[in-house]
Specification:
The protein is α+β, with helices and mostly antiparallel strands and 663 residues long. It has 17 helices and 14 strands. Helix content is 34%, strand content 18%.
Length: 663
């Protein structure tokens, strides 16, 4: 079968062979190569285009306007020099982003300025400008790389991948269409991902933060030895200090749940958690607290924190404190009949040292009590009147010595980790501990249960005390009314946890009370004590090394992560731009890849004059822009059609038909 080419017309035009075999061999002998007159060759390009328009409108190509003379491809003209200059300027535009990144790095840590403000405004334009420049330069790089490879010799598949690599989508489309997942295709796809990444990195490059300066200094915290000066050290001390510790204790007890679960107390002192509840998550003796303390099962050991003193106008970053705290563990909590209880019926709640291994008392005459806590753990019994019967809990009381590391974020400080220390040190001896157990613990067991019923004639008529109601439900204390709560309904663990908090809160309110409100004088850092006002002992403080952070004016802060991303993206783009520039000007072949006009080169179905092979794609398009073309059937009269890009001659190139067969 032979193709039927478009019939040739009379006149000085190119003639095509009558029969073209299916192999479509090009016959160069059918083209004329007669030089044109010199005056025709020297005509201005614009005039040439205008002259050819009239010829194309009549479906003919005037020979006088077609470059058919031979010429050198490397001839340097003024126009080419201007093009080279423009290409160099365009290829150098990525330097702008490198300069922006360097400018941002230069003002890192400096205070806000007009220069920095203008730089920020410029960086905000980068997400728009960078992708545009990236598309222009990277597209040119792939285009001229493919043209250079085509001149050197390459495969059609690789050429198609490079020519079509003008965006992420087109790169993926070529991979899928060619059914070839090559390293070149993957690399070209990844390269185009740098376009949005570079733009967004410039937007996130420069920010502001408050200027900080870190240093090490001294702070002081309430000495653990101050517990020996508790109001619980004697009956007279209890009576004289009642007006001091009662409002502090009750105020903390009636505070909102938000404050009770906050790492600081009502006066800003940092609270310590219950050491026993912290999981041993580290290999050393320190126990780390979870980052989200509120979601853990760890409770604070007291509603009161440890008072500290530090330099004014300086923010603490971290420090350590030492303190002693009590801890209850209960193994039994139940409700029994009143006949089985040994408590005094004049009060609703009582606590006492009690050895639960001894037989239960039938009455007060046959009960054996040691009278005081002889050692740790100390057996304690709690008896509370219930709505029907008496709630009895048997527990053990222990005293521990702990060191806590506190981390601060601005004004909020919380314990980061804790470790247990030896109970005794140079400031707390065994004799001190013996006195504490025999006197202070005994007095506390007496006065804690009757805090809000002191000197009341018939306290049992008022229902459970505020302390009992708090143990039963810390969120429902105020305005409960005169009723009895059933503490025996609580599990031993819950009862022990809440009793620990209550006991430590009351205990901390009885010593160093004047320091809880804060606003301590700086002289404590020099003297190590808060001098007594009117009467009472001096309150001692322990000096400790602390880390401080001083906040100044806002300064610029460079994100070095995004700086690196922008720098790498810009350097890759700059390298691609200069490589494309070099390839463009060392390649001899005309730029004909990817242009529609390139389909007219040596096309037997398009009547073009001899020559013009040195024209670039756009130059050829300018000369042939009025040429009517069509993708159609060039063998409309044969049983089987053939599809080609041809001149749109009416009657010679037929429209494509879905029902017709083509070869």
């Amino acid at each position: 079968m032979a193709y039927e080419p478009v019939q040739n017309r009379k006149g000085p035009y190119v003639r095509l062979e009558e029969d073209i075999e299916l192999s479509m061999q090009y016959n160069s002998g059918s083209y004329r190569n007669t030089p044109l007159p010199n005056n025709t060759q020297d005509r201005d390009g614009k005039a040439r285009v205008e002259d050819t328009r009239e010829g194309f409108l009549s479906n003919e190509v005037p020979l006088g306007q077609w470059p058919s003379n031979s010429e050198r491809m490397t001839t340097v003209t003024l126009w080419k020099a201007l093009v080279i200059l423009f290409d160099v300027i365009l290829a150098s535009t990525p330097i702008m982003f490198i300069a922006l990144a360097s400018s941002a790095a230069r003002i890192d840590g400096e205070e806000l300025s007009y220069y920095g403000l203008r730089l920020e405004e410029t960086l905000r334009l980068s997400p728009t400008i960078f992708p545009l420049i990236f598309a222009a330069l990277m597209g040119r790089f792939f285009r001229y790389l493919s043209l250079w490879l085509a001149q050197q010799g390459t495969t059609l598949g690789l050429l198609e991948q490079l020519v079509g690599c003008q965006s992420v989508f087109s790169a993926l489309e070529r991979q899928i269409g060619l059914r070839s997942w090559s390293a070149v295709g993957l690399a070209s796809t990844l390269v185009w991902l740098l376009s949005p990444l570079g733009g967004q990195s410039a937007l996130r490059l420069l920010g502001t933060e408050t200027g900080t300066a870190r240093s090490v200094g001294q702070m002081g915290y309430l000495s653990p030895a101050t517990i020996m000066d508790s109001f619980m050290s004697g009956a007279s001390s209890v009576n004289s200090g009642r007006s001091t510790f009662t409002p502090v204790f009750v105020g903390a007890l009636l505070s909102s749940n938000e404050f009770q679960s906050w790492p600081k107390d009502l006066w800003g002192n940092t609270k310590l958690p219950i050491y026993r509840q912290i999981d041993n998550s580290s290999l050393d003796e320190w126990k780390l607290l979870p980052e989200d303390f509120s979601d853990s099962n760890i409770s604070f050991a007291s509603l009161l924190g440890i008072p500290i003193v530090s330099t004014n106008n300086r923010f603490l970053e971290s420090y350590t404190v030492k303190a002693r705290q009590w801890d209850f563990t209960c193994f039994s909590n139940r409700i029994v009949t009143q006949e089985r209880a040994e408590s005094d019926r004049n009060y609703t709640w009582q606590m006492k040292v009690y050895d639960s291994t001894q037989p239960d008392c039938v009455n007060t005459t046959n009960c054996t009590f040691s009278g005081y806590c002889s050692g740790y753990p100390c057996p304690i019994r709690s008896e509370s009147l219930a709505s029907s019967g008496v709630s009895i809990a048997d527990c053990n009381l222990s005293l521990g010595h702990y060191e806590s590391e506190v981390l601060c974020d601005a004004w909020i400080c919380s314990v980061h980790r804790m470790r247990k220390l030896d109970l005794f040190d140079e400031y707390y001896s065994r004799s001190d501990d013996d006195e504490l157990r025999k006197v202070s613990v005994a007095n506390q067991l007496i006065h804690l249960p009757i805090m809000d019923a002191y000197n009341v004639r018939f306290p049992v008529l008022r229902g459970s005390t505020t302390m009992e109601k708090w143990i039963y439900d810390p969120s429902n204390v105020i305005g409960v009314g005169s009723k009895y709560v059933d503490l025996g309904e609580l599990s031993p663990d819950i009862f022990a946890e809440r009793l620990t908090v209550l006991y430590n809160t009351f205990w901390q309110s009885t010593y160093g009370t004047r320091t809880l409100g804060g606003n301590l004088p700086m002289s404590i850092l020099q003297t190590g004590r808060l001098d007594a006002a009117e009467s009472g002992p001096n309150i001692s403080f322990v000096a400790s090394e602390a880390k401080f952070v001083d906040y100044g004016n806002p300064v610029y802060k460079v994100s070095w992560k995004w700086f690196t991303v922008l720098f790498i993206c810009s350097m890759i783009l700059l390298a691609a731009a200069y490589t494309g520039l070099v390839l463009k000007h060392i390649t001899i072949a005309p730029d004909i890849i990817g242009y529609a006009s390139s389909l007219t080169i040596m096309n037997p179905y398009l009547l073009t004059p001899t020559g013009g092979t040195t024209l670039h794609g756009l130059q050829r398009s300018a000369l042939l822009r009025e040429l009517p073309v069509r993708i159609g059937d060039v063998c409309p009269n044969d049983p089987v059609g053939a599809i080609a890009f041809a001149k749109n001659d009416v009657g010679r190139v037929a429209a494509l038909d879905r029902n017709r067969r083509y070869i």
